[in-house]
Specification:
It holds the Pfam family MR_MLE_C. Its EC number is 4.2.1.113. This is o-succinylbenzoate synthase. Its cofactor is a divalent metal cation. By secondary structure, the chain is an alpha/beta fold. It folds into two domains: 126 residues, Enolase-like, N-terminal domain (Enolase-like, domain 1, 2-Layer Sandwich), CATH 3.30.390; 222 residues, TIM Barrel (Alpha-Beta Barrel). The protein has eleven helices and 13 strands. The strands form three sheets. It has a seven-stranded parallel beta sheet with strand order 5-6-7-8-9-10-11. Strands 3-2-1-13 form a four-stranded antiparallel beta sheet, sandwiched between helices. The chain starts with a strand and ends with a strand. Bound molecules: 2-succinylbenzoate and magnesium ion (MG). The site of 2-succinylbenzoate has 12 residues, from loops.
């Protein structure tokens, strides 16, 4: 396929509830959708970065500039045999993988649509017809509010509950959650909020039978996680610090964690995500699919990714309605009472876009033609 046009759509959508992590609170999402087209067929991707450079170095405004000045010019007018080659065009740019990955993912969707097959099939997925789902619950204003939210999600059927933690909202809060829910699959995500000087404190988490603790230490730290993992019974799951397949290889060699969360954007798109998946599989390390409060497009890409065989743990891919009053796809992503998402056979990412709604929430627009 040839990349004849690239259209960038900046959309703004308020979240149903604020979402708070150790690095801050989000009320409304600013997202960039990337549309690549060839012969009148469009493929869509989503840049999954946050509004501010607090999860990693990327942020929406920066992504917009980078796309227009560097990423789109690097691919416009070029022809590819396969979307797996697209990443090479931007490989000279350092970091900014969510931004580069938004375009890369759009090309995979385009290739799947041109071939008339579902995206999950194109990437070699389809290991399971239903993917197991968990939810990520942010830091709340009170423990009572958190317990209420967990009740709602457990009742909806979600298979695993992840709660965000930070210093001051950790051991005692988890104790309350465990008292109320002694047997649910429970895990905690710290988003890099601790350091090795907190080892004794983090060891207290071992009494709660957590499935894992996600990214307790710095966003770019592998070696310290190895030291922490050696001191903890609770498995460590790495998120932020795994940005390439090479990082995954290093982390597993050093025993820096026992589980890896794969985020499509964080590693720069499908080609690298598949490599991370394969390395973990070879090492016998289970993976699950992380989320970044995506719109329907990013959500649908995550669902395709999660059909690869080693995505054996429930991921952070959940129903559209948990985040949006209305999504840009129609029908939405829905979750069964069993806490699963059922994949379909429609070409590409598999959910029809609601273009009228998309346009109504679009605040910026840029078109590039070869
Ligand atoms: O660390 O997994 C994370 C949201 C924003 C930034 C980082 C993370 C998250 C989540 C939400 O946990 C996952 C979701 O999209 O449901
Ligand atoms: Mg995380």
């Amino acid at each position: 396929f040839k990349i004849e046009h690239v259209r960038l759509h900046w959309i703004e959508m308020p979240l149903v509830h604020f979402f708070e992590t150790s690095f801050g609170r989000t009320y409304s999402r600013q997202m960039i959708l990337v549309e690549v087209s060839c012969g009148g067929v469009s493929g869509w991707g989503e840049v999954t970065c946050g509004e501010h450079p607090y999860y990693n170095e990327e942020w929406t405004e920066g992504a917009w500039e980078l796309l227009n000045a560097y990423i789109v010019p690097a691919v416009l007018g070029k022809s590819f045999n396969s979307a797996s080659e697209v990443g090479q065009c931007t490989a000279g740019m350092k970091g900014h993988r969510m931004t580069r990955g938004g375009l890369e993912a759009a090309c995979w969707d385009l290739e799947a649509r041109l071939a008339g097959i579902p995206l999950w099939k194109l990437i070699g997925g389809g290991a399971r017809p239903e993917i197991p789902c968990g939810v990520s619950i942010g830091i709340q204003d009170s423990v009572a509010q958190l317990l209420g939210k967990i009740h709602t999600e457990v009742d909806a059927g979600y298979q695993r509950i992840k709660m965000k933690i930070k210093p001051g909202w950790d051991v005692e809060v988890i104790r309350e959650v465990r008292r109320e829910f002694p047997s649910i699959l429970l895990m905690a995500d710290a988003n890099s909020a601790y350091t090795l000087s907190d080892i004794d404190h983090l060891k207290k988490l071992d009494e709660f039978n957590l499935m894992m603790i996600e990214q307790p230490l710095s966003h770019d730290e592998i070696i310290d996680h190895a030291q922490l993992q050696a001191a903890l019974d609770t498995p460590i799951c790495l998120d932020e610090c795994i940005r390439t397949a090479h990082h995954a290889e290093q982390a597993l060699r050093l025993k820096a964690g026992r589980i890896i969360n794969i985020k499509l954007g964080r590693v720069g798109g499908f080609a690298e995500a598949i490599k991370v998946h394969d390395i973990c599989q070879r090492h016998g390390i289970p993976v699950w699919c992380g989320g970044m409060l995506e719109s329907g497009i990013g959500r649908a890409h995550n669902i395709a990714l999660a059909t690869l065989p080693n995505f054996v743990l429930p991921g952070d891919v959940s129903a559209s309605r948990r985040y949006w009053k209305r999504d840009i796809i129609d029908p939405w992503v829905e979750v069964t009472p069993r806490g699963t998402i059922v994949t379909g056979d429609a070409p590409g990412f598999g959910y029809p876009l609601d273009l009228d709604f998309l346009e109504s929430v679009r605040t910026r627009h840029e078109s590039h033609s070869a």
